[in-house]
Amino acid sequence: MAARACANMGGDELILAEPAWWDIEKARPLATPKGQPLLERVRVCPSLGEALAGSVLSVGTTARVGGWRRGLLTPEQAALEVAAARREGPVALVFGPEDRGLENEEIEQCSRLVNIPTDGASSLNLAQAVLILLYECLKARDTRHTVLDDPGPGSRRITHEEQELLFTTLRDTLLALDYLKGNNPDYFLMPLRRFFGKTALRRHEMDMLMGICRQVNRLAGSNRPGTGEDRP
After folding, report:
1. How far apart are CA 59 and CA 214, in angstroms?
2. Are 38 and 11 in contact (CB under 8 A)?
3. Model confidence at 122, in pLDDT bands (50, 70, 90)?
């Protein structure tokens, strides 16, 4: 049914990440003839990270709100960001299983989070959620956006892989500064992930942040006891 929704609303690729169960023969009747071509092209990946490879924006869906899940987008807001990002590279909409949704470690890998509001129900049928978000993306696809801050041809949005490299470097830097604690640093890094997810980070901005992290790590290392370079 998700394949049928994609076919109706312009979704051109369907990727399954670590599927617990996948049987294309049982999926065919639900996809209907219109969804068959897309169903035949379904790609199965061993991890979400591999499924997101090359994407410049990944929007994860969540039914849970509050805590570090702040700054959630509505479907309309998410669709506008998707429309803008698609001009620069592939965009991924990420959906979790119906019974439990996306796990924290999967949400960590998403640039932005979107919540579909409901009247009482806490979650939607997976195909319904796919249909709603793709419908909004279809409406926003031809929306013209005014570029207020053009970084020029020498920059671009960072890819998923580059984003993960930046967050790994940032986590190590904050651990070296004792800003993050070693017992669960990835959890406490989530608010920063959400913050950077709002910025549509460019490659030249990533290079700047990576350079800052390298310098901070160098200074933090030189100030550790036993280095012979302790500074006040």
Report:
1. 29
2. yes
3. low
Helix runs in the chain, H state only: 2-9, 24-40, 48-51, 75-85, 104-107, 126-140, 160-176, 185-197, 203-222
2-140: in CATH 3.40.1280.10? yes
Sheet containing strand 91-94, edge to edge, reads 91-94, 57-61, 112-114
CB atoms within 10 A of CB 86: 15
Residue 41 phi, psi (nearest 5):
-95, 5
Residues in the chain: 232
The domain ranges of the chain are 2-140, 160-222
Task: State how far the alpha carbon of 61 is from the alpha carbons of 33, 98, 183, in Å.
Answer: 28, 11, 27
Indicate the DSSP class of residue 88. T
Phi-psi domain of 66 (left: phi exceeds 0; alpha: psi -120 through 50; beta: other): left
pLDDT value for 189: 86
The CATH class of 160-222 is mainly alpha
Query: CA quadruple 176, 179, 180, 182: dihedral positive or negative?
Result: positive
Count CB neighbours of 227 within 10 A: 10
Q: Which are the contacts of 64, defined by CB distance < 8 A and separation ≥ 6?
A: 101
Own/partner pairs, 216-221, CB within 8 angstroms, 24+ separation:
216/173, 216/176, 216/177, 217/172, 217/173, 217/176, 220/173, 220/176, 220/177, 221/176
Q: Which two tokens stand for residue 195?
A: 């913050």
| Nearest residue to 8 via CA among 138, 115, 114, 98 | 138
Q: Is the pLDDT confidence value at 227 over 50?
A: no
